[in-house]
Amino acid sequence: MDHTEVLAQFDAELRRGFVDDTPGTRVERVGDVVRATAPDWNGVLWSDLDEGTADAAIAAETAHFDALGRDFEWKLYSHDRPADLAGRLLAAGFVPEPEETLMVAEIAELPTEAPLPDGVRIDDVSDAAGVRLMTQVNELAFGRVHAEMERQLLRQLGSDTTVMAVAVAGEVPVCSARMDLHVGTGFASLWGGGTHPEWRGRGIYRALVAHRAKIAAERGYRYLQVDASDQSRPILERLGFRVLSTTTPYVWTAAGGRSAG
Fold first, then answer.
1. Contact at 8 Å (CB) between 166 and 130?
2. Of 105, 172, 226, 231, which has the fewest CB atoms closer than 10 Å, so is most exposed?
3. CB proximity list for 70: less than 8 A, separation 6 or greater
4. Is the peptide bond between 82 and the residue preceding it cis, with omega within 30 degrees of 0?
5. Entry pTM
6. pLDDT of residue 168
7. In whole angstroms, how large is the CA radius of gyration of the chain?
8. Under a CB-based contact definition with an 8 Å cutoff, are residues 125 and 165 in contact?
9. Which residues pair with residue 129 across a beta bridge?
């Protein structure tokens, strides 16, 4: 895999040329910025800026989302320009969240089958009960409640471009994950992958990656992409994923939610 070539394709297809036909979602290119406004996520996906244009673009985006009364994130990648864009976002009042690693693998080189512990099965999620199981796992895995995540998954139920799965031990959900299929591109993207603390280290996360890789291969996709946490990165590297860049969400709180001081 040519890292430079694949990174350029990723930028072109999933950032600069991003398409999302989910009801209520609007993707716009304004000048040298691509932004999305959606029921569950608002943000800047891509920009082509330099030292002379960056500050004006940042000001324009904050004004746009302030006018809507919406928080948003500027999804910054380590290869984005100008080189000091992170510092400019900080100076403007954005708050960074934890950095993640952009990783990609060729699906043809990934395992599409993986053993599960005895008594554990993988179920595809197709109804609200399944979504609730996914949410339960997420709460146990990450120690926090994501009400908006459940609403997002419910909106995506039945979509041909979203795959959801949960690993269940008996009747207990122990791991869950999602995959988005980006029509017209070579990429499918992996999300979630939270595992119940008592079930970690048993290969369930790897099995869910293989499960999704198999579906993506059957649908004709070439690459799997993931924004990996420090916890999942070593597992993905062992499976054959390669590092292309890093990404950090810089979060802007809309004017109504910021303190006056």
1. yes
2. 231
3. 37, 42, 254
4. yes
5. 0.91
6. 95
7. 19
8. yes
9. none
Single-letter amino acid code for the residue at 17? G
Cβ neighbours around 58 below 10 Å, total: 24
State yes or no: cis peptide before 173, omega within 30 of 0.
Answer: no
pLDDT for 5-36, tens place per residue? 999 999 999 999 999 877 789 999 999 999 99
CB 34 within 8 A of CB 47: yes
- Give the relative orientation of helices 54-68 and 85-92 as an angle to the nearest 10 degrees: 40
User: How does DSSP assign 194-237, residue by residue?
Assistant: EE-GGGTTSSHHHHHHHHHHHHHHHTT--EEEEEE-TTTHHHHH
- Taking the C-alpha atoms of residue 209 and residue 207, their distance in angstroms, rounded to an integer, is 5
Q: Which residues pair with 122 in a beta bridge?
A: 167
CA 90 distance to own-chain centroid: 22
**CA dist., res. 139 & res. 134, Å (int):** 9
pLDDT of residue 261: 37
Angstrom distance (rounded) from CA 111 to CA 235: 13
What is the spatial distance between Cα 239 and Cα 249, in angstroms, rounded to a whole number?
26
CA separation for the pair 46, 140 (Å, rounded): 33
238 within 8 A of 210, measured Cβ to Cβ = no
pLDDT at 259: 47
Pairing type for strands 72-77 and 42-47 reads parallel
Rounded to whole angstroms, how far apart are CA atoms 221 and 105?
11
- DSSP 8-class letter at 48: -
